[in-house]
UniProtKB/TrEMBL annotation:
Entry keyword set: Methyltransferase, Transferase
Listed InterPro entries: Ribosomal_L11_MeTrfase_PrmA, SAM-dependent_MTases_sf
Designated name of the protein: ETFB lysine methyltransferase
Name of one Pfam family that matches: PrmA
Family the UniProt entry places it in: Belongs to the methyltransferase superfamily. ETFBKMT family.
Originating species: Pieris macdunnoughi
């Protein structure tokens, strides 16, 4: 899907909202007021519009960054699996040195750029699959809501452990099954947030979301 076509559909099927943990950011999302919210999958113009929702792990990371601006001062940030782009936008808002929003789905990158424009912020984007990469050019890595599958979680966690030896790794998650006790024992809790009611409704009963870093 080309950017021009996506933009037209994105504006038609999303609404700007601040009803989330980071009201400092105005984000266009698929809300309960949008017909696409309850439409059957075969009626969606998008294959899998995960970028149209502000997932709880992403909300936790963005909230943490907005509250802890000093943690990313002069840092080069990589937001992996950026979705709607909120984590990257939060870093840009507190003046991180460089912010790159990364996702293998071009639609997520288009959504991120449009949300960045909405907030008068600038982020760079990348569609390269960077999982397993040494990411030498970055100081901090954001990972939100990606521990949803055990096989993928194994790959992801091994990579993050290696990265954490040289850079800050922030993991946002509401308690998905891929973030096992064994993995949490290798992590340190940085923050926990109570989720807004609308986010609880979207996420199958999760009530809180957290930010972790890896022990080094």
């Amino acid at each position: 899907m080309l950017l021009k076509e996506f933009t037209s559909l994105f504006l038609k099927h999303t609404k700007p909202t601040r009803s989330h943990l980071t009201p400092e950011l105005l984000l266009r999302l698929i809300t309960a007021d949008c017909p696409l919210w309850s439409a059957p999958a075969n009626q969606s113009p998008f294959k899998d519009p995960f970028w149209g929702f502000y997932w709880p792990g992403g909300q936790a990371i963005a909230r943490y960054i907005l509250d802890s601006a000093d943690s990313v001062n002069n840092c080069k940030i990589l937001d992996v699996g950026c979705g709607c782009g909120a984590g990257a936008l939060a870093a840009a808002k507190v003046n991180a040195k460089l912010v790159v929003a990364n996702d293998i789905d071009l639609c997520a990158l288009y959504a991120t750029k449009l949300n960045a424009d909405l907030n008068d912020l600038r982020v760079e984007t990348s569609s390269v699959n960077l999982i397993g990469n040494d990411c030498n050019e970055f100081d901090a890595i954001f990972i939100g809501d990606m521990f949803y599958d055990e096989d993928f979680a194994n790959l992801l966690f091994d990579w993050l452990i290696k990265l954490s030896k040289k850079k800050m790794v922030l993991i946002g998650d509401p308690g998905r099954h891929g973030l096992t006790d064994r993995r949490r024992n290798q992590m340190r809790l940085l923050a926990q947030y109570e989720m807004p009611k609308v986010t609880c409704k979207e996420n199958n009963g999760f009530t809180h979301t957290t930010v972790w870093t890896l022990k080094t």
